[in-house]
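Researcher: Let's continue the batch. This sequence belongs to TPR repeat protein-like protein, and it's 391 residues. Same format as the previous ones, please.
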Amino acid sequence: MASQSAQNGAPRPSADLPPAMAEIQSQSADDVLREMNRLPLFMTTLDETDGEGGENVALEALKALAYEGTRAEVAENFRQQGNDCARAKQWADAKEFYDKAIAALHGPQTKPDDDVDQQTKIEVEFDEEAEKDKERRIEEACYVNRALCNLMKKNYRSCISDCASTLRINPSNIKAYYRSTLACLSLDKLPEALDACTRGLALDPSNTALQALKTQISDRQKQLDAQAKARREREERKASEKATLSLALKSRGILTRSTDEAPDLEDAAVKLANPLDPSSELSFPVLLLYPAHSQSDFVKAFSEKERLDQHLEYIFPLPWDAEQEYTVEGVEAYMETAAGGLIKAGKKMALGKVLGSGKVEVVDGLVRISVLPKAKSSTWIEDFKQRRARG
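Model: Same format as before. Here are the structure tokens for TPR repeat protein-like protein:
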């Protein structure tokens, strides 16, 4: 029959579609694909409905087939699917199939003729010992393969657990020793890694993979030992430096105190020029306060041999001092005493002598000096005394 043309000029088939396919003629391509996706053979995404919210009978029937047979048959089916996923490096899917296989092996046993009608029943010999042996082999394979999945997903503790389950079934499984060794090494559990590796090599001394792992364990142990040694040396040096600094402060009569509200000084600290020589030069972080104007300056390293006027000479003039009240000759300096009072700090006296007087203290590793214009000193001192009396 010659082909006919539709009114819009598009060609039409010269013969009618078969009755079973005629109904799709009026459907769009998306509708056809959606219908095909409900058929297990053509599924690209899991659709468990019949398209109208009901049950997908074909899919449920296919699912049920996966659980038909003896425990070994069901588990073997899942194991094979797991192996297929593992070969494709689909580790999460492979692990799920091995999970199902192991669960099936611990489920109720179904004999080949359990669901057959008694009248049509054919006697099939069921060798329980052979079946148990088959189940053990499948379970061993599932555990050791699931260990690989966990290893590749960096679930190292789960990998070690699966290897242990494998070895309980078969103490000679070399793969379990290898994967357990690798997982333990990844967790830096070196004694356990060496034990698993040694046991594996005892069974297979020529195993190159285990030999390579043994070398890696040795190298990693050396690396960790070196790191531990360096850490101990740092800690010992730090403790020695701390003890030396304490001795240096004590020998100079410098009082110190720590509080729970220590400021963040970053890398500024009380330091010795030679951290292991208590007689070497000391330096202090110093906070210069200008309480009459609520301003301050910070000197990161103020040597014990330096005088306050030496620092004031390069700090002055102050950018915010519009009235030019702050000059080296026109200011006075004060420090709080350990007893809570005030002393006048000599501008021409070395800091070490001021601190070594035994009257002031270095609080939280910071020296605080208040600097005021002479004309405002007496007023500030009275205010300070009143605040102390109220406090």
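Researcher: Any comment?
Model: The first strand starts at residue 255 and ends at 257.
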